[in-house]
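note to self — DONT lose this again. spent like an hour looking for the file last time. sequence + predicted structure for the chain T wanted, 154 res
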Amino acid sequence: MTTTDELMKLSCVYAAAWTDSDRQATHAYDALRAAIESLVKERDALKAALAEPAAEPVAWGCFKDGVLQLELIDTKEVVGHWIKSDEPEMQGMKAAPLYTAAQPPRAPLTTAQIEKIHDEESCLPDMVGMKEQWPEIVRFARAIEAAHGIKESE
């Protein structure tokens, strides 16, 4: 069995033998390990994204020279039939699916934004003598936001 004194002697011998190249190799190993862990996370994220079902197009667009000419809410086959028709306006058209884009979450207006809108849109000349009504105006604006599904973040 190894005693504490023997372990201390061994650690001193090991520490004395530890060189700069050992330290550099350890740092390089740590950096390589971190890079591999990062790549594994990226790979897993890509696998998860690819595993999600593909979104269905909401419509098909007919494009000529990269400009949308016609939007059809139909199947790919029907749009393909339109593209292949002999109609002169359909010559050179290419079909592409159209998807909805995720919309960013809507945030409530700041009090300063409400005040600016009030100043620009109100039929009242200014806020003089209306300071006591200001909380009601803000409450009214918040009620409109809530009716549109815009909530204050918690």
